[in-house]
Amino acid sequence: MRRVDSAVEAVHRYRRPEPACWDAVVEAVRSEASSYDADHALIQAGRAVVRHADRIADDLRRHQGSFGTAVGHGVEVRALALAGMGDLRALPALHSLGKHGGLPTQRPQARILAELPAAGLVPTMRATLQKGRYRAEATLEVLSAWGPGAAPAVPEVTRFLDTEYAYDALRVLGRIGPAAAGTANRLVDFVTGRDPRAGRHHARRAAWAHWRVTGDPTLALDACGAAVRSGTASHGLPFLADLGPLAAAHADTVRGLLDSPGAWTRVAAAHAYWRITGDPEPAVPVLLAEVDPAWAGHPAVPVQEAVRRLGEIGAPAAVAAPLLGRILAQEERLGHPFERIRILADGAYVRTLTEALERIAPGAAVGPVPAPSKELVPLPAPARRRIFGFGRPI
To answer: For the purposes of burial, counting CB atoms within 10 Å of the CB of 375, is it exposed (0-12), middle (13-18) or buried (19 or more)?
Structure first.
């Protein structure tokens, strides 16, 4: 058991643990002496355990029983582990879990499902929404990640405009795009405030969604431009960035926000200014200033967002490459996210860093050798407290 505990701690602590650590986690989950910590490490593993995919799939079939319909924690763990690899063998179990309310309820875990093709799971997502609001937040998160692939779910998503999840539903409709054009009038009602569910934060999202589904940028330019001019800038800047050169009339206002006292506003303004004008010169220093190599993953600070935007700029952000490379080479994972999502959060950050480096300096995103396993000796108590400390989920 000490060996398993040490392996679980290692995969939570290190970005590139020895393969033996993941091997031990898989063996622990497949045994009768599995633990909460091992189970949730495997759920987050993704492609780190792809060499065990066949064994996990066989174990999943065993847990599903003779008729392949059993559900429960064991089925959930193995199905989500396969889903994180994009393995289609997870689909039958996920369909069964969906029928019995066993799919994830939180956004970070739900994003694992988006690794699978939309066509395989959209019917289950639709059925989940039809059952009511329980799991709506997580389900809408997955549909949003699929974008146009979630188009068959437009009727169910539209119904959620009448609930407290309207903001999430607006995002899904916008990401689906033209296939959701039938919702255009509802979106206008949210922009104008005629819809009784419309709040002050809905107008910009609805205006952006209206542009995405109809192709007409008028409402989005008006609503988001007004937000930027009024001082609620960060709420309109991401949408102006998406509009790109269509928002050229707002370029000077956006540039003025590069000196905003708010870090999120500065990052959003830098990204929007580059997208609108194509000029990276004012944007790169602002974004680079927010990239903190000591960032522990706290979501209140826009470090990952700044990295993502530098990557989108690409070669003109070459000055950022050395710093991004050093951060990517760090052995330890982000320390702030709590255990149940730490590997997911750090994995997302590593992907952001890797993709940014590949766009800025192709071939530069080469990771270091795996961290030593130290024979899987348990970490000292102070380190364990840091690893398993609680914090806000991403």
So the answer is: exposed
Task: Give the relative orientation of helices 36-44 and 73-84 as an angle to the nearest 10 degrees.
Answer: 30
Task: Give dist(CA 305, CA 72) in Å, integer.
Answer: 36
Give the span between the Cα atoms of 41 and 99, in whole angstroms.
Answer: 25
pLDDT tens-place values along the chain, 394 residues long: 678 899 999 999 999 999 999 999 999 999 876 788 999 999 999 999 999 999 999 999 999 988 777 888 999 999 999 999 999 999 999 999 999 988 999 999 999 999 999 999 999 999 999 998 889 999 999 999 999 999 999 999 999 999 999 999 999 999 999 999 999 999 999 999 998 888 878 999 999 999 999 999 999 999 999 999 887 666 899 999 999 999 999 999 999 999 999 999 999 999 999 999 999 999 999 999 999 999 999 999 999 999 999 999 999 999 999 999 999 999 999 999 888 999 999 999 999 999 999 999 998 775 544 444 444 433 333 333 333 232 222 2
Q: Under 8 Å CB-to-CB from 60, ≥6 apart: which residues?
A: 75, 78, 79, 82, 89, 90, 93
Q: Give me the helices (H) in 193-262, please.
A: 202-214, 218-230, 237-243, 251-256
- DSSP for residue 14: B
C-beta of residue 18 within 8 angstroms of C-beta of residue 374: no
Q: Which residues contact 307 (CB under 8 A, 6 or more apart)?
A: 291, 324, 349, 352, 353, 356
Q: How far apart (Å, rounded) are the C-alpha atoms in residues 388 and 332? A: 14
Give the residue carrying structure tokens 């000490």.
Answer: 2
Question: Which helix (H) or strand (E) covers residue 105, if one does?
Answer: none
Looking up tokens 């706290």, which residue turns up?
298
| Cβ neighbours for 10, distance < 8 A, ≥ 6 positions apart | 17, 18, 21, 371, 373, 376, 379
Q: Which residue in 388, 384, 387 sits closest to 2, CA to CA? A: 384
| 275 alpha carbon, distance to own chain's centre | 22
| R_g of the chain, CA atoms, integer Å | 22
